[in-house]
């Protein structure tokens, strides 16, 4: 029956269309087909070619839309819905993960706001916001040393290492040993240098960052390096003015000499007992190379620039006691500027001009 043949061929065609590829055996039978399809029997007529299937980007067959499963969209539900609670939880997790952590700028802004609020309310600033006393004291002191650009100084590696150890031991701030100058260059026990630049890190504690240029560098040694530090209790200065160092070397202190030393606001007297390096690894260092005995019986190590000659007219009333330092004596210990450090008009004129300028600024 031709109708049955046509229906069978149509159903076969639909089946092959769904499968996506024709049968290979049927392709071999169609090689003897005539170009005149109408003259051929119905059973030998070529079957219609299946429609081409859509390809994906990878070149593979893609299922027709009618056969693909459509993935339902995630629906945001409220807390009152009984269904879809897991989807809502997943969405909340994604939202929380997408939130960035608080940036340094935000933390810094918060700290600044806290500082401004304290100032506006007339409250005393928290201790961590206040600059250290050694940088803000208006009274001149020989120690601790306050650096200034252009100063010629003597740097003691041994003292710097003791400072780093104290910072790490007390966990004052993060410090990296690889960044220390003696790890990157061949530093001698003590180096003469000049301060070329000063910057400050304001996070507690307030650190002073010095760029030092060596005035007589060792062979194959960089000419400059950086030191970061702050004044600490019970940690001896490892940077001093070269002028103070030269004066101490000129006096030629030795065991048996009597001396006085300025501690806080008083003179204390003692006797030098011995001289030897504080650490055998630094044999050429003058840093705390003297063992002294105070008149009160205590002993400790000190450096030659800590000593001052005794004034026999100003002695303590009792042995082991102290004598107050007068303003004149304090000024005598201060740095003596060289003539070229001031203008042609002299130090007094320049100081008065600077004071007038500061006064005008404070009136603004």
UniProtKB/TrEMBL annotation:
Give residue spans, biased composition: Low complexity: 1-12
Biological processes, Gene Ontology terms: cytoskeleton organization; regulation of cell shape; regulation of transcription by RNA polymerase II
InterPro entries reported in the protein's UniProt record: Bromo_WD_repeat (IPR052060), BRWD/PHIP_AD (IPR057451)
This protein's superkingdom? Answer: Eukaryota
Its GO CC terms? nucleus
In this chain, composition skew of type Acidic residues spans 13-38, 79-95
- List, alphabetically, the Pfam families matched: BRWD_AD
Task: Tell me which residues make up the BRWD/PHIP ancillary-like domain.
Answer: 144-313
Region Disordered, as annotated, extends over: 1-128
Full protein name: Bromodomain and WD repeat-containing protein 1
Biological source species:
Araneus ventricosus (Orbweaver spider)
């Amino acid at each position: 029956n031709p109708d049955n043949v046509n229906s069978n061929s149509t159903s076969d065609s639909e089946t092959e269309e769904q499968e996506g590829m024709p049968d290979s055996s049927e392709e071999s039978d169609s090689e003897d087909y005539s170009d005149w399809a109408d003259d051929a029997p119905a059973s030998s007529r070529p079957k219609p070619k299946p429609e081409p299937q859509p390809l994906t980007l990878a070149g593979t067959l893609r299922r027709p839309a009618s056969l693909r499963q459509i993935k339902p969209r995630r629906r945001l539900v409220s807390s009152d819905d009984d269904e879809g609670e897991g989807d809502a939880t997943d969405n909340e997790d994604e939202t929380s993960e997408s939130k960035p952590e608080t940036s340094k700028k935000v933390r810094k802004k918060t700290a600044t706001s806290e500082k401004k609020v304290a100032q506006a309310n007339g409250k005393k600033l928290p201790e961590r916001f206040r600059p250290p006393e050694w940088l803000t004291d208006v009274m001149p002191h020989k120690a601790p040393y306050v650096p200034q650009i252009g100063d010629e100084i003597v740097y003691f590696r041994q003292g710097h290492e003791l400072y780093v150890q104290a910072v790490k031991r007390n966990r004052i701030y993060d410090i990296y040993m690889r960044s220390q100058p003696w790890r990157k260059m061949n530093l001698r026990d003590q180096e003469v240098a000049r301060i070329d630049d000063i910057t400050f890190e304001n996070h507690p504690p307030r650190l002073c960052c010095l760029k030092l240029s060596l005035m007589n560098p060792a062979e194959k040694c960089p000419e400059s390096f950086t030191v970061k530090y702050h004044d600490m209790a019970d940690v001896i200065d490892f940077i001093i003015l070269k002028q103070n160092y030269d004066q101490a070397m000129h006096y030629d202190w030795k065991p048996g000499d009597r001396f006085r030393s300025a501690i806080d606001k008083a003179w204390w007297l003692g006797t030098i007992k011995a001289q030897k390096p504080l650490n055998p690894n630094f044999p050429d260092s003058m840093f705390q190379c003297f063992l002294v005995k105070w008149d009160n019986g205590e002993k400790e190590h000190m450096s030659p620039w800590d000593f001052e000659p005794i004034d026999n007219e100003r002695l303590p009333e009792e042995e082991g006691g102290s004598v107050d330092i007068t303003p004149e004596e304090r000024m005598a210990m201060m740095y003596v500027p060289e003539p070229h450090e001031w203008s042609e008009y002299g130090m007094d004129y320049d100081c008065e001009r600077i004071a007038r300028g500061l006064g005008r600024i404070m009136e603004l």
